[in-house]
Design goal:
There is one protein chain. The strands form two sheets. The protein has a six-stranded antiparallel β-sheet with strand order 1-2-8-4-5-6, with no helix packed on it. Strands 7-3-9 form a three-stranded antiparallel β-sheet, with no helix packed on it. Strand 5 and strand 6 form a beta hairpin. The protein contains one helix and nine strands; from the N terminus they run αβββββββββ. By secondary structure, it is of the alpha+beta class. The longest helix has 29 residues. 14% of the residues lie in helices and 33% in strands.
Length: 209
């Protein structure tokens, strides 16, 4: 082979190699692409909810009574501690949603539990519970209010399921909601036993809306 032929072949080889390199670079550029991303997050915070009660007034004495063992002790009118057949006694109990509560609610009378210390007078005492105007007096006029529940005896849960009562949140929520006055009316039956003593515990439940 002549020197001219070798030189020509060498140029062809170099040309092919160079072409391969160019193709390789071209493929790399074709596969490269810019990209960018966006991210979004969410923060989820639960509200607060707290029902509290007072036996002393619409604006004072509020605390939590979260169990039957820590139930608020209602103060009934005379003669609650010296009952005779057909006597009727009354006791006020104010409830409200506490400050920082973030959801309004409905209040319902859900259960009743009674215990006889002496005798069986839980069977000889009936009751009615009404929601009345917060500045009203808990007395015989309570029947003009909203009946939450009643029973012919203290031995069972409310025999008559009444209405529910709305509870509002404070405005602003750093303040407590508007109070509701519950009036408990207890009537001694004609078969009331002398010397008997009975304890009744009513449970109210507020359900957020």
């Amino acid at each position: 082979m002549t020197e001219v032929h070798r030189s020509t072949r060498s140029r062809k080889v170099r040309a092919v190699l160079a072409g391969g390199l160019v193709l390789g670079v071209g493929a790399a550029v074709t596969l490269a692409a810019w990209n960018d991303s966006e991210f979004a997050s969410g923060l989820f915070t639960a509200g607060q909810f707290d029902l509290q009660g007072s036996t002393t007034g619409a604006t004072e004495g509020y605390t939590d009574h979260e169990s039957a063992g820590g139930a608020a002790e209602l103060t009934f009118t005379a003669p609650f501690d010296n009952l005779a057949p057909e006597d009727v006694v009354y006791a006020p109990f104010w409830v409200r949603l506490a400050a920082e509560t973030t959801s309004p609610a409905t209040l319902d009378l859900v259960t009743l539990d009674s215990t006889d210390g002496t005798g069986t007078n839980s069977e000889n005492l009936s009751y009615e519970i009404y929601a009345i105007a917060v500045d009203a007096t808990c007395d015989e006029t309570a029947t003009e209010g909203t009946l939450l529940g009643s029973g012919d005896t203290l031995t069972d849960d409310p025999a008559v399921a009444g209405e529910t009562v709305p509870l509002t949140i404070g405005d602003p929520t750093t303040e407590p909601g508007e109070a509701v006055l519950l009036c408990t009316v207890v009537t001694a039956g004609e078969d009331l036993e002398q010397g008997g003593d009975t304890t009744a515990v009513w449970q109210y439940t507020a359900t957020s809306e």
